[in-house]
Each structure stands twice: as C-alpha cells, then as structure tokens.
Amino acid sequence: MSTYRVCFCFRRRFQPASNEPPAGVKEVFQKYSEGGVMGAEQLQRFLVEVQGEAQATREAAEAVIDGMRELKHLNVFQKKGLSLEAFFRYLFGDDNTALPHSLGVHQDMRAPLSHYFIYTGHNSYLTGNQLSSECSDIPIIKALQRGVRVIELDIWPTSTKDDVEVRHGGTLTTPVELLKCLQSIKEHAFSISPYPVIITLEDHLSPNLQAKVAEMITNTYGEMLFTAKSEFLEELPSPEALKMKILISTKPPKEYLESKTIKEEDQAIEKGAEDEAWGNEVPDLNARIGAISKVEHMHSDHHHEEEDPDEGDKKPHQIVAPKYKHLIAIAAQKRKGELSDAFKVDPDKATRLSLSELVFEKAVISHGTEIIRFTRKNLLRIYPKGMRITSSNYNPLLGWMHGAQMVALNMQGYGRALWLMHGMFRANGGCGYVKKPDFLLDNVPDRFFDPKAALPVKKTLKVRVYMGDGWRFDFHHTHFDTYSPPDFYTRVGIAGVPADTVMRRTRAVEDNWTPVWDEEFEFRLTVPELALLRVEVHEYDMSEKDDFAGQTCLPVWELRPGIRCVPLCDRKGETLKSVKLLMHFEFEFL
Known about the structure:
Elements: E1 2-7, E2 10-14, H1 23-31, H2 40-49, H3 58-67, E3 77-78, E4 81-82, H4 84-91, E5 116-118, E6 120-121, H5 138-146, E7 150-157, E8 164-166, E9 176-177, H6 178-188, E10 197-203, H7 207-221, E11 225-226, E12 246-250, H8 265-269, H9 285-298, H10 322-326, E13 328-331, H11 339-342, E14 352-356, H12 357-377, E15 379-383, H13 397-400, E16 406-409, H14 416-424, E17 433-435, E18 459-469, H15 471-474, E19 488-495, E20 502-505, E21 516-525, E22 532-539, E23 547-555, E24 562-569, E25 575-589
Parallel strand pairs: 6-16, 7-10, 10-12, 11-12, 12-13, 14-15, 15-16
Antiparallel strand pairs: 1-2, 3-4, 5-17, 7-8, 8-9, 18-21, 18-25, 19-20, 19-22, 22-23, 24-25
Helix pairs in contact: 2-3, 5-6, 6-7, 9-12
C-alpha cells in the first residue's frame, strides 16, 4: 500500500503500483507460447510475424532467451524459454526500442551537403536568453555532444580593440574568449559523429583582427580545417568526403552592409501566448502562413527586412585579410533586391543564403518552388527572428519541407519546437545529417513538391498506447500530486506537412503509477518521409495546469513495427532513467 498524508490526523492509502502485463501482451504471449513458455521457435515466429523482423533467425531468438538468464533469480526465467513475465520484461527492455540501436548511419553519405538536413544551432554560445545571459563554451560542448553539426559564433573586438571575443552584439550578454570556443569545438567536434562540423561566423572585425582570427583558426585546427581552392565551390562536397573536417562559413566581406530595423510585422504575427508551462504548442502551419499572408498584404508597400546576422558591420570597401578570406570554405551570399533574385541558381557556384524565420515564412507563400530548386544545389539557413529574446523557437518543419538544410534553433530554448529538432536528428544513427527525401531532390523539370497540395495518403500508421512505467522510480511519490498517486494521460500525434499534422490523447488513468490505457490511434500520412511521431505524457490536475511527465519525438520513417519500448525524455530532451511507454506500431501501405 502507498500512503499519502492529507492532514495531520488523516492519511489516504492506495493500492501499490503494479506492472502486470496489459491484456494485449497476454494475448500475444498466449498465441506464441505453449504451456506457459515461449520457446526459441515460437519467439522467432513472434519476431517475424508481429515485430516485422523478417530476417530474424532461430539463433537470434535463442540469443534473446539467453539474455534473459540474468532474471533467473527473480523466478521469471524458464530453462526452455520465456515465461510471461520474462517476455514482458523483454518487451520493456532496451533491446526492443522503437528505433533500432543497431541501424547506425545507414543513409548514403556521398551526396553533396545540400542533399541533407543538417543539425544546426543558433547563437550557440548563449546559456540563456538573448539579452542578458552569459556567453560560454559549455552550450557549444553540449550541442556537439548531442550531435549538432553547425555552430554559430558572433565575433567582436574586445574593449581594448586588440583581441577577439564571442558575444551577442548590442546586448548585456557577458563575452567569452574566441580561442576558448575554438578549442572546445576541436575537442568535442567528433565525440558523437565523424561527419563535418560547420562554424558559421558573424564577423564584426577590422582587417587586423580578421588576420588574428585566421591565425587562431589555423593554429587550432591545422589539418582538420577544410579550405576551398576558390572563393566559391562549384558543388558542395559530401559528408563522407568531409569526415573529421571543420569548415568555416561566412560572407566574403567586401561591401558596406547597412544595419536594418526589425520588422513591425513580428509583433503583428507573434501574438500567441504560452499555453503550457513547458512551452508553446507547435504552431499550426496553415494558420501561421495565413496570418503572414494577411500582414504581408497590409504592408505590401513597406518592405522591411530583418538584419541578417551573417552580414556584420563592415566599413565601405574594407580590405579583407587574405588569410581570413582563404579560410572561408562555404561562402555565404548577401541578399540583394527582390526575394526572387536571392533564389536564382548559379550553375557555376554553390553558396549559402541566410533568412530570418519571418522572411522565410513570407517567401514560401510566393516562392515555394524557387526555394526547393535553390536548395538542391545551395544551402539555406533559417534563423530565429530578433523578437525571440527568451530564446524560444519556431516550428522547424516549414523549413525542412521546403528543403532548407540549416534550420537553426536555440538549443537552450527547451520546448516542443526543439523536441521536433531532437526527433528529426534521431534519424540516421544520430550523426547530425539526415538525407532529404527524393521529392526534394528530384531534378525532373517542372515537377516540384508542394507541401500545401492535397496529396493522396501513402500509408497509415496505427499506434496503440498500452501502458507506461518508471515514474515511481524517477520521481518522489508526491511530485505530481501531494495527496494521491498521479493521473497520467498520453498525447500522441504527428508533426509533418499540414495535412498530416494532428494530436490525439488517451483518457486519464486515475491514481496509478503504472497506467494502462490500451488505446489505439490511426494516422493517415500523405508525406510519411517528413512525419515525426510526437509522444507526451502529462498528469491531469483539476485545479492547476497539468504537470509534464515526459516526452519524445521519433522519425516515422525509422519506426520499427510491432510491440516496442519507447523511452521518454525530460523537458530538456535528456532521457529519463526509468520512464518508458509500451506501444504497438503497425503500418498499412496504400
């Protein structure tokens, strides 16, 4: 029995938590067992017929059974096979997760960089908000350890004008030494992934300090540094060719770049309030684009542009340090004139273009096909608008569905938008590079993907949420409710193109640390190649906001069918020690 104190003289008692297998698991075990034991032959049939592991062998089944011998002391192991409890423990174990550990990097890594979504951070040195937080190399280290491949550094002269520091200009953020950041990148760049790290520089330096930066970079990275033979590459190299390399990307600084004001439209469009303590619900893309269209029409005669942070603040016709210019492996272009001009493809050079989220959101309304054509050869980077002073984030899917490779988010801006980023880059072994779907790379003339078009359903994903467990181990018994066990419910849905995006929820199971929901949801997917499965667990609270109890986001195209264990993460995206869901996934192809 578990006891909760209600007042000084009164206590409530509840049944102890039970992790008995749900009815669905018992039914499967009964079908694939004999006399209460699932032998190797029956386990093999289960792996093939239920788990969709067509290549599963008798030896693989025997290895699973042998792996459960460690439970012999718990009296759940049978010499001839698995008991119901041992089978249940196997299903909830680390070898049966929804994403296979063994898959690793499995996509073709020999295509140009422009053919991949790249794990990208924004203002990578900030520990908190955009106005007054500390600058440090610690967030850079954490980002690299998560698999981030694009690090952004804003470089400025120190107060004495004889050295270089990293800080967010025009704010109260405290600086950090550039050299310290460069050294930390070197030390941790390839701790998780061998594929290239790109450093994007926002340069606010004089020629003599540019020369000093060139010396720092060269001395720090040596042979790790990739440099181009000319100012512009004709085609971007592949991640495979750039293994263990570090690349510098910024604009070749030639001209005076005027500072620009932040758009008034930001405030007109961004009026959504936070609906949950753990962050905004991911904005509906159709509603978002509709709001932008209205504002664009209102301001059609007053075109403002948000400042591109890559541009810095160079003097007119400033002479650039030659060594510094030589270090730029991927040259970023300055946007001039109309948006349509920015998306013109030069057959002789590959470049990088940066747009704020708001400029990009406006661009996709009238230039969607041009953007997709542009991103087949060139890199497109999208960064958060200046009004996001709390380091909040935008929905990254709009960028991905138009082929943008570098969708830059604030890695310290924890919440649902960042959870989508975590989900996307769990794909392809977590290496930080995910191959874009073929329809974003298709070179057939006049055939372009339109995410807003009414497309036929390609496949249906059926998701059954059986149960959850682990909170009783990771949280104090009064963490969720002072006077009783928690009332958990699960939200499950799809983030993807607008037609596929939806969220559903189970009922709340009252007063139970090991809730059994056993509810099924069906998701009809028109673009499964860009679909992310969202899973959140909350604790229902009648009088206050519901409590957060865990989340994860998984790439649908890598989900394993069958009954699978789904570990949950905390608000920051760190995996909780014990909290897991047991779910069943089934695909139907149409």
